[in-house]
Write a structure and sequence with these properties.
The chain is α+β, with helices and mostly antiparallel strands. The protein has one domain (2-191): Gcn5-related N-acetyltransferase (GNAT) (Aminopeptidase, 3-Layer(aba) Sandwich), CATH 3.40.630. The chain is 28% helix and 29% strand. The chain has five helices and nine strands. A nine-stranded mixed sheet has the order 1-2-3-4-5-6-7-9-8, sandwiched between helices. Strand 1 (2-3) and strand 2 (9-10) form a beta hairpin. Helix 1 (24-31) packs across helix 3 (47-59) and helix 4 crosses helix 5 (161-169). The longest helix has 21 residues, at 121-141. It is globular and about 45 Å long. 31% of the residues are buried. It binds coenzyme A (COA). Coenzyme A binds at residues 36, 39-40, 109-112, 117-123, 156, 160-163, 165-166. It comes from Penicillium frequentans. Residues 14-193 form the N-acetyltransferase domain. One of its GO terms (molecular function) is acyltransferase activity, transferring groups other than amino-acyl groups. This is N-acetyltransferase domain-containing protein.
Length: 197
């Protein structure tokens, strides 16, 4: 993996850049679909929902969100182009109070466009983020989250086998189970080797 700056980084095939308003159209194409949101919340109804979701990342120092794009070999970097290319997914971390846990933890989430499922992209992006999590924490989040844990966790519904596979292949281990909203069975995962201290 090649870190470009604390907040922009690349994996072998992907470039991850902080979400900005101009990503709304690409993200709406992902977040408005039943199939991408069925294990999560309701799909975005219109693009203003997506804009609101993106804005939360730029206005909070307790979360970071990335737009994920493919690196095209005909350019040095997608960031050099006016048109950065199609968004294939998103990856985000936010400080959340986790059900049944008595303290706040950094929760990882991700959503990819169905056109790009099964290519190993989610796994590659999560593995990339885990590798630089300590830098993201120290440079971006720690100044406003003093005293918080650095522990990175993720939650997947038991029925979401693809997401569970992504987490297991990225070095997460199961640390608990609980019933989520509407009684759905959820699995709590913790990342190993992500200590920021
Ligand atoms: C979960 C999600 C991000 C996976 O994206 P992806 O890019 O297809 O993931 P990857 O290709 O990196 O890996 C998926 C793995 O799960 C496996 N998989 C996919 N569907 C599966 C299923 N129904 N049952 C079992 N395994 C499955 C794939 O075979 C792959 O494993 P492999 O590499 O060992 O073959 C994508 O399906 C998605 O965006 N879903 C909707 C949003 C979501 O559920 N986010 C997670 C919330 S916790």
């Amino acid at each position: 993996m090649e870190p470009i700056s604390p907040l922009v980084f690349r994996t072998e095939r992907l470039e991850l850049r902080p979400l900005v308003d101009s990503d709304a159209e690409g993200m709406y194409d992902i977040r408005s679909r039943e199939e991408t949101m069925k294990h999560r919340k309701v799909p975005d109804i219109d693009i203003s929902d997506t804009r609101e979701w993106i804005r939360a990342f730029s206005t909070s120092n307790l979360k970071v969100g990335y737009a994920v794009r493919e690196i095209h070999t005909d350019t040095i970097s997608v960031s050099d182009k006016e048109d950065k290319g199609r968004i294939v997914g998103s990856l985000y971390v936010g400080l959340e109070r986790i059900k049944r846990a008595d303290h706040l933890r950094w929760e990882l989430g991700y959503t990819f466009h169905p056109d790009f499922w099964g290519k190993g992209y989610a796994t590659e992006a999560v593995q990339g983020l885990v590798k630089i999590w300590s830098r993201i924490y120290e440079l971006v989040l720690a100044p406003t989250a003093l005293g918080s844990t650095t522990e990175l966790i993720a939650i997947a519904r038991k029925a979401n086998k693809a997401s569970i596979n992504v987490l297991l292949k990225s070095g997460f281990v199961q640390i608990g189970e609980f019933l989520g909203v509407y009684g759905s069975e959820c699995v709590l995962f913790g990342a190993v080797n992500t200590s920021a201290t």
